[in-house]
Amino acid sequence: MTRWIIGWMLVLAVTPAIAEPVRVAVASNFLAPLERIADAYAAQGGPALRISAGATGQHYAQIVNGAPYDVFLAADQARPERLVAEGYARPESRFSYAVGRLVLWAGAKASLPDNGLAGLAGHPLRRLAIANPELAPYGQAARQALDATGQWSALSDDIIQGQNVGQAFQYLATGNVSHALVAASYTRLDNAPDGDWVAVDARLHDPVRQDAIILEQAPNPEGARRFVEFLQGPVAGEILTRFGYQTAVPRS
């Protein structure tokens, strides 16, 4: 009886730690793939993920101000690097989990220029949505691509900026804009809006390398470690590829 009681007490002692969710701050462009990865992780016995999606810059500010996340899946490399330098994240845990692509998407009642992004300034346009270049890496990539094609100034009056790439995508999905420069992952959504899209030449902008990192004050560090291992495995890699990302990218 004594052994049974001790054994039951040990089960009770460890069960809350195992069941504790992993709190993940994720860039908006990666929300849909992360939801699929979370389902696959749960199917293999992993704990639930408590997901908070938003702009990478906003998540960085939240973390610096004490937000209790375990893992940060950024849309760039700069913010995780800064978090390491400032003592908010564990340097040995940082790795590039994906490289994103940018697409030009025309809404259901709009069309794409014949020569793609380069012809956008001379094409019928009812506002162009991009993510905020100061907050979101996909917004920075959009601005770089427009600068590289000499169209930023010409289109500036027609550009509407979302706080993150998810909001820019919503502007397109709800018909508030005719065109958008957004993450290619949105083209793989089951409920993707109507309209044509074309990939933006990756040479027109810096690579959108996305880094993951475990935070120094993670409430569930062991859960974070296990999830990050799963994120680097073949099941997650297959999901990433399905959503149009490149995987296994070394840090620069």
Please give a structural write-up:
This protein is an alpha/beta fold. The protein has 2 domains: 2-99 and 208-242, Periplasmic binding protein-like II (D-Maltodextrin-Binding Protein, domain 2); 102-199, Periplasmic binding protein-like II (D-Maltodextrin-Binding Protein, domain 2, 3-Layer(aba) Sandwich), CATH 3.40.190.10. Helices cover 37% and strands 19% of the residues. The strands form 2 sheets. The protein has a 5-stranded mixed β-sheet with strand order 2-1-3-10-4. A 5-stranded mixed β-sheet has the order 7-6-8-5-9. Helix 2 (31-43) packs antiparallel against helix 9 (234-242). The longest helix is centred in the first third of the chain and has 18 residues, at 2-19. It is globular, with a radius of gyration of 20 Å. 42% of the residues are buried. Mean pLDDT is 90; it is low at 4-17.
Task: List its salient traits.
252 residues, alpha/beta, D-Maltodextrin-Binding Protein, domain 2, five-stranded mixed β-sheet, globular
* Rounded average pLDDT: 90
Unreliable spans are 4-17
Number of domains: 2
**Alpha-carbon Rg, integer:** 20 Å
Number of strands: 10
Task: Provide the CATH architecture of the largest domain.
Answer: 3-Layer(aba) Sandwich
- Please identify which CATH superfamily of the largest domain we are dealing with: Periplasmic binding protein-like II
Oligomer type = single chain
Helical proportion, percent range: 25-40%
Instruction: Could you tell me the CATH topology label of the largest domain.
Output: D-Maltodextrin-Binding Protein, domain 2
N-end to C-end Cα span: 59 Å
Number of helices: 9
- Percent of residues in β-strands: 15-25%
Shape: globular
